[in-house]
Amino acid sequence: MAKGHRAQIKRERNEQNDKRPSAKLSYARIPVQKACFVLDAIRGKDLNTAIGIVTYNPRYASTVIGKLLKSAAANAENNNNMQRDKLYVAECYASDGPTMKRIHPRAQGRAYRIFKRMSHITVVLDER
To answer: 113 pLDDT exceeds 80?
Structure first.
């Protein structure tokens, strides 16, 4: 259990906040597994290379992740006064969101479950 006064604990927790520019998309209608194909391709690359990879990738997830990359780059320039040329993708990951459950009718009155999965996608940039 944590020691100290509640305000002190909150202050210490807030000091550990990550100061790197990031962008997060919640409830994206993309399964985590499909989003990770694109995220694995851009992890560790510099910003211009990552945007190029995402632009010419035929997957649907790449359009969504491209918007996230541009948003994170804008956050870096406007909020953190970083130079766009020095940015690279430090972290990018997708975590599970809620799953919509739908029913698909089958033969002889049976019903099969269809899972429409969502994900929360996060892109974190940093300067080299």
So the answer is: yes
Is 103 within a domain? yes
Inter-residue contact 5 to 11 (CB < 8 Å): no
Q: Is 54 exposed, middle or buried (0-12, 13-18, 19+ CB in 10 A)?
A: buried
Q: What confidence tens digit (pLDDT) does each residue in 48-86 have? A: 999 999 999 999 999 999 999 999 999 999 998 899 999
CB 92 within 8 A of CB 42: yes
Helices (H), 1-128: 6-15, 32-42, 47-55, 60-79
Kindly state the tokens that stand for 52: 């190029």
Residue 114 covered by a domain: yes
**92-106 burial string, b = 16+ CB within 10 Å, else e?**
bbbeebeeeeeeeee
The CATH number of residue 116's host domain is 3.90.470.10
CA distance 48 to 3: 46
Question: How many domains are there within the chain?
Answer: 1
